[in-house]
């Protein structure tokens, strides 16, 4: 296996946390080569926005380093580029970002240090034999790409080079709450950005649900290119998903928790990898060990639902547990949305966080069992981005 992983500190003002995304491929058999290398550099050199001044100037950036040297860097025309190397491998870059829930906040600088990782996935696909070969290499990232939601703040940011720019602010529930919306997943459908939360009710200790706020996590937000927001009640759709495995609308009989979802234009379906699956009322001690091993799909109207078992755990059956839950996933570019790359994370009280990466197809065949990433972080955002492009990687080289 061939993977190099170097989590490193990422210094971004305003506390921007993550984007979503990941790759996929059309393959029946797949060989994934990975090699662990490098050391954890999460506490080493921080790339600070304060180290350089960035000025937006029409369609390009002027970057000045601490020695006042100047370079002009134009933005990429697309999110990522697929390259082909001399051996015929296609190569696409991606980036992940960790959510530390404020544990690395720098109050003096009014900023956050958020460990991240960037990498390259190489793959070769033989249509005649339906065989594919994957290689994954990872390193340290520098910036986020696209429009992103700052976890827990209800603010959607878009990145202008290394600069996070606030774009949309929205409230919880139907939009009239005083609390910000807690975004857990994002997807694009019909040219609009859709963001959603856990998709379950919040019950009181006695099992009752506050009619004013208990259903807020069942709303999603639909944002158009102008930043206009619609607050849409997805209560019925979330209930339809859990009814597929015998969980009723009563949250005291069980629930699903969603942290990752995508829409496939090719299959014309939503894909969900629930983080938690429980057949009983919420209890924190039980919840952290109720992670799901299933994938759900739904057509646009949620009238056709499918369920597929996804077991990416390579440990002996007797040693497997349900502490690793899906936190993000994406389809592999140019694979007809047949192969998924996903992140799975562990969050147990008073224990270090863990993140694993895995690859499988939409029929449940595992091509890469769970492989742990370095560092005690929860990586919950992943997106394809050409981080090798100068627009995103604006470090000035010393002579």
TrEMBL record:
Full protein name: Apyrase
The organism's place on the tree of life at top rank: Eukaryota
BP terms from Gene Ontology: proteoglycan biosynthetic process
Keywords assigned by UniProt, alphabetized: Calcium, Hydrolase, Metal-binding
Binding site residues for Ca(2+): 140, 184, 259, 327, 380
Gene3D superfamilies documented for this protein: Apyrase
GO terms for MF: calcium ion binding; GDP phosphatase activity; UDP phosphatase activity
Family as reported in the entry's similarity comment: Belongs to the apyrase family.
Cofactor(s) listed: Ca(2+)
